[in-house]
Amino acid sequence: MSQEIKDGKVVSFINMKGGVGKTTLCIGIGEYLANYEGKKILLIDLDPQFNTTQSIMDLVNQAEEYMNDYRHRITIRRIFEDTKTISERPKIPSVSEVILKFESEPNIDLICGTIDIIKDDTSNKSLYKRLNKFINEHKLKELYDYIFIDCPPTISFYTDAALFASDYYIVPAKIDRYSILGIRLLNTVISNLMYDEELEITPLGIVYTMRRQEETMKTGEIRWRFEQNKDVAQMGIFSSSTFIVNDLMVGYQGNIASKYSKSREDIKNVSEEFLSRISQISSIKDDLDE
Questions:
Q1: Helix 261-289 × helix 22-36 angle, to 10°
Q2: What's this model's pTM, rounded to 2 decimal places?
Q3: 249-261 burial by CB neighbour count: b if 16+ within 10 A, else e?
Q4: Class of 9-82+89-285 per CATH?
Q5: What is the pLDDT of residues 82-95, one digit of tens each?
Q6: CB 56 within 8 A of CB 43
């Protein structure tokens, strides 16, 4: 039986501010689409904190395998390895050398992250294109419905690598007085990369995360000011949000939103809006191409 050829999209989950629920949202949408919508998902962990990797290892009960084996030989580092001599030709690793598959989660594959990427020499700036080359050479968009990249919360080589490979990006954001700074920095990073590389990276929107069920007057005022910013208006805002669920925040049963009744409806709504926004934008692009 021949494998279905997909038309996959690469989506970066990114904010220049940490602590906004970026990883939880990335994993949450990915797991929901995989297990409730039947989508084939590849998660790529580019954050040195490697929380996506830890969460998936916990989900598939392979934390020991990661610590004793995977982190030494099958992580994102393989994609960015440089040649040892000038005469060598760069070699893209095979899929089996980088992507982990799981019997218990057949619709979720993973490229593991590792804290060790902070030690790597990233002075060769051309290497940031390797992730995009890996995706294209192995035709991963024909194998996956969505490729989600969990980005680092800083301006870095790996941020550029994620964005260069992406078709879209999502911005998780908490409603606080410092949120606008992260959005401004992010907009500058993306605008500069698009200009320098002549890229088209489309914002899917900002997703409010970790909201309280009852919004205070002060929080409402901060949100109103945030939404008046031109960068925010340009990115757009999801009508769906995620709300604070203490058990999810502390990982009582892992870091998967659908595993908790209180957060399951949130992630369902955000995921369905994600699919709707992708469909609408794709239709517009198709009409423009005709």
A1: 80
A2: 0.94
A3: eeeeebbbbbbbe
A4: alpha beta
A5: 877 777 777 899 99
A6: yes
